[in-house]
Amino acid sequence: MSRKLKAAILGFGGIGHHHAANYAGQKDCQLVAVADSCPARLQDDSAEINLGASGKTDLACLRRYHSFESMIKQEQLDFIDICLPTDLHAKYAVKALRAGLHVLSEKPMARTLAQADAMIRASEETGKLLMIGQCLRFYPCYEALKAACDGKKYGRLLRLSMQRNSALPHGLNDWFRDGKRSGGALLDMHIHDTDFVNHLLGVPDAVMTFGCTHYTGAIDDAVTHYIYDGGPLVSAETSWSCGSFKMSYTAVFEEATLSMDGDVDRISIYRVDQPPETVEFSGNGYANEVAYFARCILQDRQPQVDSPFSTRETIRIALSEERSARTGRKVRL
Question: C-alpha dihedral over 69, 71, 77, 78, to 10 degrees?
């Protein structure tokens, strides 16, 4: 039996707590340490995030540090799970890779394409693996949609609409309110759907985004049309101006419609003149992405489901959406 990889989380805010909870039960890796510059965060075993409760972590089993440097000096680690604010992803990913560690970094990959390129370059130069935590690629209800699309189980995909809305983040996540750091709802939350569209169909020929600045100075409310010459029709909406968090999708195929309406554990399948069918799922995208990355390390192979080159393209698409929203014009990619 292979040894368990040793992992540490850098950044123990809301998403850091959520990642930590998803190491429980991992077969190939174990969380041994966390680091955060705020001492109070290291005392809390859970946090509230837009998904609700983060899940609890047994802090007694973790060594806690106040800096990245002190943690890697004292720990023998295999990989770092970066859960810092978006504008710090590239800086610390490059530091960790050059320190000889593999890196799993929370989405979005980076605030700019130049930062994303620096991350990829450091991975290539050090030979260490880099993966971005675009968790929808690992959620069973989204995997089912991709399988249906790739295998044409229900014929061609004709139309896809996706939604991802919530209230403005608060509490541990106040940095979100600075659009220069977070990129607003478009780059932080909507990026999930942008990434899945890229994963499902590839880079679109153009994007047209209707959006507005609300709280952060960045785009906090938007609807994007992803334009693929020859179809399908694809759109996604996002907002930080709603109540409780909700994500959903509707995929219209030639022979059936697949719908996920807020419950990631089930989808509904509708066919003409037939009763609806419900398909149940189990599994958490965050836990699944950690398990996948650990297997890639142990097998010494680059991530294929979620390669950094693909998620770099996701950033390019999202920044094109931002440009479209600000100019009111279609942007070709």
Answer: -50
pLDDT digits (tens, 9 = 90+) for 19-71: 999 999 999 999 999 999 988 888 876 555 555 555 678 888 899 999 999 99
Joined together, the tokens standing for residue 76 give: 């023998």
Question: Which residues, other chains included, contact 146 with Cβ-Cβ below 8 Å and sequence gap of 6+?
Answer: 199, 200
> To the nearest 10°, the Cα dihedral for 41, 12, 198, 189?
10
On the 0-12 / 13-18 / 19+ scale of CB atoms within 10 A, 275 is exposed
- Please state, as a whole number, how many other Cβ atoms lie within 10 Å of the Cβ of residue 247: 23
So what's the pLDDT on residue 169?
Answer: 86
Nearest to residue 312, comparing CAs of 85, 112, 106, 101?
112
**Residue 306 burial by CB count (10 A; 0-12/13-18/19+): exposed, middle or buried?**
buried
Q: What is the pLDDT of residues 243-287, one digit of tens each?
A: 889 999 999 999 999 999 999 999 999 999 999 999 999 999 999
- Tell me what percent of the residues of the chain surpass a pLDDT of 90: 87
Domains annotated for the chain, with CATH where assigned, are 5-133 (3.40.50.720), 136-286+315-332 (3.30.360.10)
C-alpha–C-alpha distance, residues 57 and 99, integer Å: 27
Q: What is the pTM of this model?
A: 0.95
> Quick one: tokens of 256?
């059936």
Distance between CA atoms of 110 and 91, rounded to whole angstroms? 9
292 phi and psi angles, rounded to 5 deg: -65, -45
The answer to whether residue 162 scores a pLDDT higher than 60 is yes
Give per-residue pLDDT as tens, 131-150. Answer: 999 999 999 999 999 999 99
Residue among 238, 164, 237, 232 nearest 204 (CA):
232
Distances (CA, A) of 55 to 69, 139, 144: 27, 17, 25
Contact (CB, 8 A) for 217 and 184: yes
